[in-house]
Amino acid sequence: MADYHEVSPNAPAGEKLLNWVDNRFPASKLFKEHMSEYYAPKNFNFFYIFGSLSLLVLVIQIVTGIFLVMHYKPDAALAFGSVEYIMRDVPWGWLIRYMHSTGASAFFIVVYLHMFRGLMYGSYRKPRELIWLFGCGIFLALMAEAFMGYLLPWGQMSYWGAQVIVNLFAAIPFVGPDLALLIRGDFVVGDATLNRFFSFHVIAVPLVLLGLVVAHIIALHEVGSNNPDGIEIKAKKDAQGRPLDGIPFHPYYSVHDIFAVSVFLMVFSAIVFFAPEMGGYFLEYNNFVPADPFQTPLHIAPVWYFTPFYSMLRAVTTEMMYALIACVLLGAILAVLKGKMPTLFKVLIVGAAAGLIAMMLSIDAKFWGVVAMGGGVVILFFLPWLDNSPVKSIRYRPDWHKYLYAVFIVDFLVLGYLGILPVSDLSSRISQLGTLFYFGFFLLMPWWSRLGKSKPVPDRVTFTPH
Amino acid sequence: MSETLVDGGQIDNSKRTWLIASGCVGAVGGVAAVVPFVSSFQPSEKAKAAGAAVEADISGLKPGEKMTVEWRGKPVWIVRRTPEQLAALPTLDAQLADPKSERKPDEQAPKYARNASRAIKDEYLVVVGICTHLGCSPSDKFTTGAQPSLPDDWQGGFFCPCHGSTFDMAGRVYKNKPAPDNLEVPPHMYLSDAKLLIGDDKKA
Predict the structure, then answer these.
(1) Residue A241: phi, psi to the nearest 5?
(2) What is the mean pLDDT of chain A?
(3) B5 Cβ contact partners less than 8 Å away, ≥ 6 residues apart
(4) Do the Cβ atoms of B159 and A319 come closer than 8 Å?
(5) Which residues of A touch B135 (CB under 8 A)?
(6) CB contact under 8 A, B72 and A314
(7) Closest Cα of chain B to A457: distance in Å?
(8) B83: distance to nearest CA of chain A, Å?
(9) DSSP A128-188
């Protein structure tokens, strides 16, 4: 608790007002802590704009969403028509809707790039594990938000996409069918489902999302930002206790981010005005057809941002299960032969592996497909404890790590591309390999990240003034 | 925070006991309050009531044709199979995942439809047109022979566009496809030669 602070009676009115507020609410203190005296490393590069940009897109989504709710009707009989009403009859409604639909894709673009940045520079490593965990939570909430929002226009893709995803839950042994029934609120996706998804999309998930965003930023400002060199700038401070390689967020990065925001908005506006459907990737053509519970469109695919995980779902077939069982078996054998641990642990590992294999043999491949899809996201949460590399940043890791990360990115993109296409024998083989690589990359990370000789990490960040 | 304690550090045990007890009672009440909220997710009485049986008039159905009726919000297909289609059924057993519907017999078909053609009358196939994988509605692929996404020796059946599961003319799923089970045969009965009742098989 701060003592009451007096200002000179001759001070300007603005200063008096600020003092009045500061004695009652920590306005100046918050501004200093989070802006003018928040020291961020001076060597940020291009990849460090996506955090601010995702905050911007969040604001765009909330503002446009509020206005869309004023005209939208969450009713199976009226929903499709009300979206068309927004597009045709509401003044400027088309713009608000296209901003919202483009914003959804933009959100995933900036968030994926933001996550890629974290992956490259080890931003999830100690002491930033919680920032990463909150971030993964945001990603999960964002996926839920996008999925439920996609049902609202009540087009063919909305309907069948929701039907498929809700049925995923039905694949869970024992409780699955009842769980799917609870989610739908009816025996098929219908009015009850639309109404509850609307409630989740406009209020429940956004509240969770905002809470997580606040937690993400509080945690970030507590430990300070990482940087492309992966060096802790707080280790070298000047006489006043300011990091030598740090610069105040305001004005340096606030101006930097405003520039990035301007460029981003140019691209964003170009898409909103000239290609809001983005050739069927941002808004799928079949979604301009009203939902028909009797007719599945000839080709259904989720929106692009879900396709890598959707490919993993499709990759798990009965044949793939044998490959996965072989992986579990191999893992258990290696743990027993090579692992340095007490015999009790080894026995436990063998027992767990045997149990897992028994389950893999007895439960449908469909369920394991769901596990793979969910696991693809959940595994990200464990990244801080999977990476054992002695250095944080990719810059100082052995060169072959860079190639491995490149292959990982290509793998993710290929999985995403295959998720858009209809299934074929060749594409399902490739996505099976891709899925194995994706999980291998993370699950074997504790081992491979230790291999090779890392380069010497400098004491201070590498920075050339320009 | 300061270390000064109220009451000079004396702990009133009876007060503490009651604080813990009331806290626990409050927690139980809080958990109990979850029940009505979770229950509200269940299908409403209105949704449950909408599951009544429906009648279908099959007099206009020609061999090789399919009609769809709505039952419980799901499409139910009635297919009048041609003699060729029926003749092909037994030859496919080796390619099917569960040709005799033995995996989950109770869920796949009522007793009277557990035969080679999965039907009361061989000619008429009655199945719920929802893929057992993830609930898409498969499309008709009655033409035989090679075509995109289907094997060259295709004998006619259904193809699910979502994940590529294929079914034969008796709604039986092919091997190595994502769908685990054959298409479900709903409870049904013939009211007359031309009238089919779907959703109920006990009405006299």
Answers:
(1) 80, 15
(2) 93
(3) none
(4) no
(5) 163-164, 166-167, 170
(6) no
(7) 42
(8) 27
(9) -HHHHHHHHHHHHHHHHHHHHHHHTT-BHHHHHHHHHHHHHHHTSTTTHHHHHHHHHSSSS
For the stretch A165-203, pLDDT in tens is 888 888 888 888 889 989 999 888 889 999 999 999 999
Arithmetic mean of pLDDT, A95-101: 97
Judge: A192–B164 Cβ closer than 8 Å, yes or no: no
Check A424 against B149: CB less than 8 A apart.
yes
Strands B74-80, B124-128: pairing is: antiparallel
Q: Do B164 and A186 touch (CB under 8 A)?
A: no
Among the listed residues B184, B181, B203, B183, the one whose alpha carbon sits nearest the alpha carbon of residue B192: B203
Sequence length of chain A is 466
* Preceding amide of A290 cis, omega within 30: no
pTM of the predicted model as reported, rounded to 2 decimal places: 0.89
Backbone angles phi, psi at B198, to 5 degrees: -110, 130
Element holding B57 (H helix, E strand): strand B54-57
Chain B residue with the nearest C-alpha to that of A190: B73
Token couple for A246:
């740090």
Report which residue type is found at A72: Y
For tokens 């005005």, the residue is A273
Compare CB distances from A300 to B38, B162, B175 and report the shortest one's residue: B162
| Cβ count near A153 (within 10 Å) | 25
Instruction: Report the gap between the CA of B28 and the closest CA in chain A (Å).
Output: 24
On whether any CB of chain A is under 8 Å from the CB of B14, the answer is no
